Amino acid sequence: MKSKIYALLTVFMLAFTFSTPLAAFANDKHAKTVEISKEEATREINAMKRRVEEIKAMDKSSLTKVERKALRKELREMNKRARALGSGGVYLSVGAIIIIILVLILIL
Fold it and tell me: 20 to 30 Å CA-CA from 107: which of 7, 34, 91, 99?
C-alpha cells in the first residue's frame, strides 16, 4: 500500500515539475520554432560578438537619447537570442531532483 502511494505521488510530482520549463519555452517570443545547426548558431553568435564590440567601441556621448535607447534594446535582444542559441540542456526543478533522490533511496 505504501509503495503504491509513493509511486502515485512520484508520477504526479514529475508530471507537474517537468511541464514548467516547457511552458516557459512555449511563451518565449524569441525562441525559433525551426532547429538550426551548430555551425549556423556559432556563426550567428560570432556575428553578435562582433556587433557588441562595435557598440562598445562607439562614442556614445554624441548619440541622442533615442539612439542610446535603441542600442540598449538591441543589446538586450542579442543577449536573449544568444542565451536561446547557447542553451540546449535539460532543466530539472528542485522538486524533481528531490523526488529522484527519494526514488533512488527507496530502490536501493
Answer: 91
